[in-house]
Write a structure and sequence with these properties.
Length: about 190
């Protein structure tokens, strides 16, 4: 657990759903249309998966309006959706990696990288709306890894990944489903 002010917790928390949707490979704000049915119908969040033989599959994640069911059961339908936004889900991952680093270091780091991260997180927190959250160059440059499994294991774990060149990189695992690189190259973990 980390302590953050209410503003940082709530206002910066508005990017969390994007990270969850990215982890789940989910589509939100989805509508369906079909020939012979007038108008578009809203759908719940859809999870994009593949069958064992590699075919495209969608899993409906929530209750669906009965008018939408005939569309999806028909021979053809069209979907419009919004995929998770990397500008937002990577920012959420950076927030969690930074807080995990603070926990590991048992302090608020005072380094150049930490200053950049805090500046970008505060700019996102202070944006008047989700649409106006400025891009975080630091977050956008971070690689991320994910599984499509449900969260399990510790909420935060620190580990390292060996690279092909024999060196190791420190990564932070979030609930066993998302992995984020250690965000502070100028302040290594205490491990």
């Amino acid at each position: 657990m980390t302590r953050t002010c209410t503003r940082c917790n709530n206002d910066l928390g508005r990017v969390e759903a994007e990270l969850t949707d990215w982890r789940d490979n989910a589509f939100r704000h989805t509508t369906a249309t079909a020939d012979g049915i007038v108008g578009a119908r809203k759908l719940p969040r859809l999870l994009h998966r593949q069958t064992a033989d590699g075919k495209f599959a969608l899993i409906i994640d929530g209750p669906m309006h009965p008018d939408a069911e005939p569309m999806l059961k028909g021979p053809e339908f069209a979907l419009q959706f919004v995929p998770p936004n990397p500008r937002l889900y990577k920012l959420a991952a950076l927030k969690h990696a930074y807080l995990a680093a603070c926990l590991d270091l048992r302090a608020i780091p005072q380094t150049l990288c930490a200053d950049v991260i805090r500046r970008e997180l505060l700019a996102a927190r202070d944006a008047p709306s989700r649409r106006e959250i400025p891009p975080s160059e630091y977050a956008l440059s971070m690689p991320l890894m994910r599984t499509h499994e449900q969260p399990r294991g510790p909420s935060v774990a620190l580990g390292y990944v060996e690279r092909p060149d024999g060196l190791a990189e420190w990564w932070i695992a979030l609930a066993g489903t998302i992995a984020v690189p250690w965000p502070l190259p100028d302040s290594p973990p205490t491990y």
